[in-house]
Amino acid sequence: MTLLLPDLDRAFQNFNYSELDDPTLSQPIPQEALLRWVCLARKGDPEAGCLFTDALRTTLREGTFDCFQRVHGPRAIGYRDWFYLKLSHFLGMLLYVNVSLGSVRPAETDDPWTDGIPVVGYGGPAPDLELLEAAFLPSELKSFEWSPLVNLVLEAGEHRWESLQTFLAGKARVQQARASTGAPKSRDWSRTRERNQIIRSCLERGYDAIRICEELDKRAIPTLPSLQKQDIHRWVDGWSNLDHRPKIQQVFSKHRPRNPVNSL
Description:
- The protein folds into two domains: 7-183, no CATH class; 189-254, no CATH class.
- It has 13 helices and two strands, in the order αααααββαααααααα.
- The chain has helices spanning 10-13, 31-42, 46-60, 62-72, 79-94, 129-135, 147-154, 160-180, 190-204, 209-218, 225-229, 235-240, 245-254, and strands spanning 98-101, 119-123.
- Strands 1-2 form a two-stranded antiparallel ribbon.
- The chain is elongated and about 65 Å long.
- Helix 6 (129-135) crosses helix 8 (160-180), helix 7 (147-154) runs antiparallel to helix 8 (160-180) and helix 9 (190-204) packs antiparallel against helix 10 (209-218).
- The longest helix is centred in the middle third of the chain and has 21 residues, at 160-180.
- The two termini are 38 Å apart.
- Helix content is 53%, strand content 3%.
- By secondary structure, it is mainly alpha-helical.
């Protein structure tokens, strides 16, 4: 399934937040720095490869996404989509073939940074998003070691894309085999996690209950099963019903910060 985002989130796709340089996530790691690390790693610089891997690992953490939502406000995107967008972006940088320069001066080297030429983008093959979804589950993030995958792509030379595709296809087959055995799918809980993230973010920003309901409805978050049985599929409608309001209030209270700005 190809991920489609509203235009307002297109710039958001390019942010590479990481706690490497900025624990508050107020500024992203520049894409140019990430591409530079890839360039150096391809030339055998192990430290550059480690820096890139650390940026990938920390950016993909669910805690990083939570922090982004708190600092920059709720966005129409959940952790699952964040995970695949960021992973796709980082893998795309690993696959880059050429860079776009912020200068009319032609590049006569494969390392324009040496000459101080600004790098504003990159070009090359893109990772297969459907294969990414089939190969990776956000729930396995804590146990997955990213260094071997990064090194595999870095060391594949001109066959980087083929090597990545082979890796992803093999991992997707493993995931499919696990699913066929009846193993529980953590992705079934992705909408619940997204709901909870939005509620926490809204509470920490001081939103009142009706505003939180509006934010949940904007993102098409399903209402509670008990409300759905009563044919209530909008959070604002559930809140307006005095019989059902306590159920919503209870959910919000579970995520209330220690020192909320506004009480429900």
